[in-house]
Q: What sequence folds into this?
């Protein structure tokens, strides 16, 4: 569903997959292709770690293309799934699944996952597939990619908040530092920030190619065997800032844990270190473990509320990355709730 930022130039890779038939995974790490060509990341690993069972109730907190929701519904005929997404376009894709799974097994809520505490009842398993979805990348008019000219929007919900262009027009030094240095992890962020701040607000980039060209002009081109466009990290950081993605994750994880039944499982797939750091620390907190090297609190002061299901983060197999190149930066972590 969701892809890593290093895969920005692979945004067209779904094209040849769209004509392939839907199939179930035949081996661990292999791809399940939906009717629309969508490939859910780490499908078999998610199914196994969520321990999908008859009569279970599950939450797909990041519906996207519906690949993981389909995975859950196909696992058992008596499973029910609730799915969330703040992108209005996701609601249209729900209709495909409703045709394949008639009845009341699937319920969709148009909302960000930070509001999942508004749902009623508890779940046997909750899944997050973080980041930007393949559909958002592939729809050029949304402004997530700089492959072609488009309005610089980047909002996961284009009906709310400021577009990336509007955000840039209002940004000050602190805003740009957070977006480009902290979120984009761009070493030479200051050069671009100073260039943008020197512009009048109305003259700052308004399209994808305008921002990409400015980044290419101001920033040095990376060296090495896997060179990326100078705008890649800038687009990453700007998108995270516009959508408040890290704040959403930080807010949502404790709410998701509270929504689990005793024995319920929480599975999270992230695609870069900023997301994974939040997930890793929060999971350690739930499991009563030190959250970082400087965490020296005595064990008796920690609440052990969960157990780790993944001693090491799970990554896609070589087979999966060949079938679905966008999965290559995926990192999966899972825990099981041990207290009600």
A:
């Amino acid at each position: 569903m969701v892809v890593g930022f290093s895969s920005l130039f692979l945004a067209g890779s779904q094209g040849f997959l769209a004509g392939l038939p839907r199939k179930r995974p035949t081996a661990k790490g292999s791809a399940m292709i939906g009717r629309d060509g969508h490939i859910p990341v780490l499908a078999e690993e998610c199914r196994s770690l969520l321990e999908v069972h008859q009569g279970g109730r599950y939450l797909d907190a990041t519906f996207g293309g519906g690949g993981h929701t389909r995975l859950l519904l196909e696992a058992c005929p008596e499973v029910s799934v609730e799915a969330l997404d703040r992108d209005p376009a996701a609601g249209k894709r729900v209709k495909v699944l409703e045709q394949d799974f008639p009845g009341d097994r699937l319920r969709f809520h148009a909302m960000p996952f930070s509001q999942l505490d508004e749902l009623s009842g508890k779940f046997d398993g909750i899944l997050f597939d973080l980041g930007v979805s393949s559909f958002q990348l592939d729809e050029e008019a949304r402004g997530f990619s700089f492959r072609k000219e488009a309005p610089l929007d980047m909002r996961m919900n284009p009906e709310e908040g400021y577009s990336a262009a509007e955000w840039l027009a209002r940004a000050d030094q602190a805003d740009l530092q957070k977006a480009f240095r902290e979120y984009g992890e761009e070493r030479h962020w200051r050069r671009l920030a100073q260039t943008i701040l020197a512009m009048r607000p109305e003259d700052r980039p308004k399209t994808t190619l305008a921002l990409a060209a400015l980044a290419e002009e101001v920033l040095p081109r990376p060296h090495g065997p896997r060179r990326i466009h100078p705008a890649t990290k800038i687009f990453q950081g700007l998108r995270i800032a516009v959508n408040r993605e890290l704040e959403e994750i930080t807010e949502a994880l404790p709410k998701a844990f509270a929504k689990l039944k005793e024995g319920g499982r929480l599975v999270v797939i992230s695609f870069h270190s900023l997301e994974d750091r939040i997930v890793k620390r929060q999971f350690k907190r739930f499991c009563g473990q030190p959250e970082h090297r400087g965490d020296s609190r005595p064990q008796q002061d920690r609440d052990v509320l969960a157990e780790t299901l993944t001693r090491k983060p799970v990554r896609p197999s070589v087979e999966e990355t060949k079938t679905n190149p966008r999965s290559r930066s995926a990192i999966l972590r899972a825990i099981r709730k041990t207290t009600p």
About this structure: The chain is about 35% helix and 15% strand. Residues 245-258 form the longest helix (14 residues).
